[in-house]
Sequence to fold (368 residues):
Amino acid sequence: DLQICQHRAPTCCTKKMEESYQAAVRRERTQSIQALNFELKYMIVGHITAFQEAFESLLRFAENHTSSLFETAYRPMAKEAAEPVKELFTDISLYILGAETTVESAVLRFFDSLFPLVYSRLINPGITDLSEDYTECLRLTRQDINPFGHYSKNMVTELSKSLWASRMLSQALSLGIEVINTTEHAALSKECSRALVKMQYCPHCQGLTLIRPCVGYCLNVMRGCLASVSELDAQWREFISTLEYLANEMAASHELEIALSGIWSSINEAILHAQLNGPQLSATVDKVCGQPKQQEGNLSSANIVPVKEVTQTQTFVMAHTSLNNKRREFISYMKRSRTFYASIAERLCDGDLVMRDSSTCWNGEDVV
Fold:
C-alpha cells in the first residue's frame, strides 16, 4: 500500500512511515531555507538597527543643538520653545520610519507654534494677555503673513531632499526582511513533498540508509520545488540595485548629517528675519487679531543679536561619518547576494545532502 516508495524488491516501510517522511521533509526544507537566509537576514536586520541607532543619535544631537540656540540667543522664549522643538524632531523621526506624514507638515507645524512665541516674547515683549484665542489667531496668521520669510520653505526643501532617501532606504530594508520571511514559510506542494521523500527517504525503505542522492537528481527536484521562490530572482536583483541607488543618494550632495545640523541655522535666520520685520508684522497682526493687553510702560523689543554658527557642525558631521562607512559595507555585501534566489536550489543541494565524491548514488529508482 505504499504511495511514494514503491519498489519491486521487499520493503521495510509502511504507509504511515511515508506520511512521517513527508512531515520530516517539510520541516527539514524550512530549516534548510532558514539556515540559508540567516546570514542575509542577519546582515539586513543588523543594518536596520545600525541605521536607526545612527539616525537617532544624529537626531538627538541636532535637537540638543537646536535647543541650545534658544537657551543662549532667545532665552525669553527658551522654556516655551522646548515642546515645539521636541515635536519637530519626533515628527522627523516618524517620517524616516515610514509614518504617514510629510517633512513639510512637520516643519510648518513647528513654525506655526513658534510664531506666537517670537511675537509675544521677542517682537512685543510687553504682551501680558496671551489667551488661547489670541495664540491661535497668531498661529493661523503665520501662514498668511509669512513672518519667517523664505527660511521656513528653504528648511522644508533641504530636509525633504535628504530625508526622502533615508525614509525609502528604511522602508526598503523592512521590505527585504518581509520577502525573506515569506520565502522561509512558502508552503511545499504535495508533489514537491512526495518528490523530496522519494529523493531522501525511499532508499531507507530498501535498507540503504547511507546512500545519498545524485547531484543532478537533487538539483532537478529542488528546482521543481523552489520554482516559485526562484522566480523572485529578477525582482531581487532590482531590489539590490534600488538599495544601491538609495545609499548613493544618501551619500550624495544632500547629506543627511548636514541637513539635520542645518536646522539650527535655518531657525536662527528665520527668527532674525521676523525680528527685523517686527513693526510691519505688529501692524498686520493688530489688524487681524486685535491689540493684546500690554504692561504699563511698553517694553522695548529684545535686542537683535545675530548668533554665529559654532564649530559644532563640523564635529557633528565628523562624528557620524561611520554611517556612510556602514552604508558602503552593507551595499557591498548585498551586491554579492544578487544571485541569492537564482542559486537557491544549488545551495540546498550542496554539502551533506548529496553524494559528490563517490561512484554510487540514488537516482530516485535505484542505486547507480
The longest helix spans residues 15-73. The chain has 15 helices and no strands. Residues 37 and 265 are 45 Å apart (CA to CA).
